[in-house]
Amino acid sequence: MLESTVAAIRPLDEAAMAAARELQGRLTKPAGSLGALEPLSVRLAGLAGACPPPLPDQAAVAIFAGDHGVHAQGVTPWPQEVTAQMIGNFLAGGAVVNAFARQAGASVTVVDVGVATPLSVTPPDPAARAADPAGPSALTVDVVATPADPDGPRLVAANVRAGTRDMTVTAALTRDEARAAVETGIRVADELVDGGAGILLTGDMGIGNTTPAAALVAVFAGADAAAATGRGTGVDDETYARKVAVVRAALARHTPDPADPLGVLASVGGLEHAALAGLILGAAARRVPVLLDGVIAVSAALAAAAFAPDAVGAMVAGHRSAEPGATAALRHLGLDPLIDLGLRLGEGTGALLALPVVTGAVRVLHEVATFDAAGVAEK
Ligand SMILES: Cc1cc2ncn([C@H]3O[C@H](COP(=O)(O)O)[C@@H](O)[C@H]3O)c2cc1C
Ligand SMILES: O=C(O)c1cccnc1
């Protein structure tokens, strides 16, 4: 499935991009006055192979959750159980991502791809699923909890293993485990797009996950461990120094080859990072834009680009995370973030805040009059 998805990812459609550029030039505004929105609209036309491209309706956030063996090295002050507890919070609608998703009108899908703590959720109801195969629990990956509100957050059970191994001791994952996580992400992308999503947004939850994110950025963007590593949830100087040393030690132990993205994800990645890479590949194969959140998302995007360089055409950088690794990754991908608010939360929050910007970029091509049609004189 990974190979066929990668093979389906093609370059942007030049004719649609030329049409969008030409249309932008005829709209009732000075050329270039919409700044970054103009090249974005052109790229989204190229992705859709149509001008105008469809409005990115039915936005869907997929929050991939996983735990990390490297937590044992003291890289974060938060207990591992917070990953599972936050899943409960997502499903109850109480996290920041829920507030922003409600504001943006986006659906929330939480995917347990590797949480270590057993989740206390309602078991699946096979009868209800059979009765309403097209309902909110129609993901073929098992949905174990659906809310009373059919539009509320859902949980997908796709646990590959109960957290990664400690990458300073051994590879975080086997290649098979990394592949299973990537393919989970592809499957989630497929099912969300089949369900009508016009844009996918990346989300993550995993205590300790900024450490493997830093390692991935160091490998794929060729950054030094110190330049790729940030303070995550806000660690003190002593913990930060340890975190850099942990990233350096993992890189020295595994010497991952950036030309082998599955190997990199297996040795120093995380289950949510691998699944996010899959979600991005899946979106690119379906030619649906994927709006990237923070450092975890962009570290996964580097892996996706290593699998399929043309996948970058489907990526929109939602925001510039305060994590230094995010900036290094975006530079490597050649992406400019849409907003820069100093956020450092993850969950998909920065992507959700950027969503109206993406919609606006496309809406202009649909709704703004041309000089000719509006009878406005040109310069
Ligand atoms: C309550 C809480 C909610 C969060 N939501 C996202 N994260 C973010 O912080 C974690 C990564 O930071 P580090 O590598 O320093 O542990 C991830 O779970 C990420 O999603 C959270 C973290 C906490 C504590
Ligand atoms: O950039 C992010 O997504 C981020 C930053 C710090 C902690 N968790 C996530």
TrEMBL record:
A Pfam family annotated for this UniProt entry: DBI_PRT
Keyword Hydrolase: no
Domain of life: Bacteria
EC nos: 2.4.2.21
Catalytic function, reaction form: 5,6-dimethylbenzimidazole + nicotinate beta-D-ribonucleotide = alpha-ribazole 5'-phosphate + nicotinate + H(+)
Functional summary from the UniProt entry: Catalyzes the synthesis of alpha-ribazole-5'-phosphate from nicotinate mononucleotide (NAMN) and 5,6-dimethylbenzimidazole (DMB).
Family classification: Belongs to the CobT family.
Protein name: Nicotinate-nucleotide--dimethylbenzimidazole phosphoribosyltransferase
Gene for this chain: cobT
